[in-house]
Structures are given as structure tokens and as C-alpha cells.
Amino acid sequence: MKKLLLAMILFPALAGAQLPEKPVPVVDREFKADLGALGAGWTLDAVSTHHVLSDPRGYENGVFFHGSRSTAKVMGAWALTDTGSAFAGYLWKKHVRNRYLHPFWRAWLLVPAFGHIEAAVGNWTLPDERGVTWPGTGHSGLLKSLRRHPSDNPGGFHD
Questions:
Q1: pLDDT in tens, 67-81
Q2: What is the mean pLDDT of residues 125-152?
Q3: Which residues lie closer than 8 Å to 116 by C-beta, 6 or more apart?
Q4: Measured between alpha carbons, how far is 81 from 100 in angstroms, rounded to an integer?
Q5: Which of 36, 35, 37, 61 is nearest to 48 (CA)?
Q6: Going by C-beta distance under 8 Å and a sequence separation of 6 or more, which residues neighbour residue 117?
Q7: Which residues of 78-107 are buried (b: 16+ CB within 10 A; e: fewer)?
Q8: Distance between CA atoms of 140 and 104, rounded to whole angstroms?
């Protein structure tokens, strides 16, 4: 953000570059697609979080409600945050007329979407009590190795 403000100060021509004042629909195909990506990422994160928290040893290790075991609390907080982010993206797309800054409305939707997808992948790579990752295909490599007792793996921490 600081770099963006610095660029706006150093290059005043960027600040004056305006998009044409023509009526443009805000909720178009692009906005719906990015909103769908955010919803899909949230859903993947909710399913994987529920899977992790259904294990008696599982707990939330994230931004909201650290240490909690309630999927509803954790994902409800993320739903409110994502709703605010989608609204901010809507307002950005509707009101920012600078042609260089206008495309950044997508960041309000895609950054949280990728964050949820990353969290879901992280949840799915956690091994269960049998040492198998969900949904039961493959293994988690280093995490699986570190959970075993060192005497079970005399060659070191590698599979």
C-alpha cells in the first residue's frame, strides 16, 4: 500500500488518468465469477476445517478463534469477513475511476479466495490418526515422518 501511495505522489499523471464516464454494470460476469471463486474457496475451507475439527485432537490454528473446536464459530467469522471483502470489491469497482487502480477491485475477492483454498489444502495434508491424509489417498511426507517416533525411522526423518 505504501508503494502504491508513493507511486501516486511521484507520478501525478497516474492520478489524473480517468476511465470514461459511461454507465457500466458493476455486477457483471467477471464480478460473478470472482464471487463464485470466493464462495468455492470458502466452501472448501469449511469442509476441510470441519474434517480437522471432527478429530478429537483437532483444533483451529488460524486467525479467528485460535484453539477453538467450533466449525460454526470459525467459518461464521470468515463468512462475515468475506462478505465485507466482497462489498469492498463492489464499492471499489463502482466508484474508483482511475484506469490504473480500477482493476484492483478483483484483489478484494481473489486474495481471500486463494487464502481459503490454501487453508483447505493445508487442512487436507494433515494426517489422521492412522497417518493417512484425507480423503485417504497419498501421504503427507514430512508431516507424517515427524509424527512418528525417531526409533521407527532409523534412517532419519525421510520416507
A1: 888 888 889 999 999
A2: 49
A3: 38, 41, 42, 44, 45, 78, 82
A4: 26
A5: 61
A6: 41, 44, 45
A7: beeebeebbeebbebbeeeeeebbbeebbe
A8: 36
- Quick: pLDDT tens for 37-50: 999 999 999 998 88
Q: Are 143 and 123 in contact (CB under 8 A)?
A: no
Question: Cis omega (within 30 of 0) on the bond before 103?
Answer: no
Distances (CA, A) of 75 to 70, 96, 103, 147: 9, 30, 28, 28
Return the amino acid letter for 112: P
CB atoms closer than 10 angstroms to residue 49: 22
Q: How many residues belong to the chain? A: 159
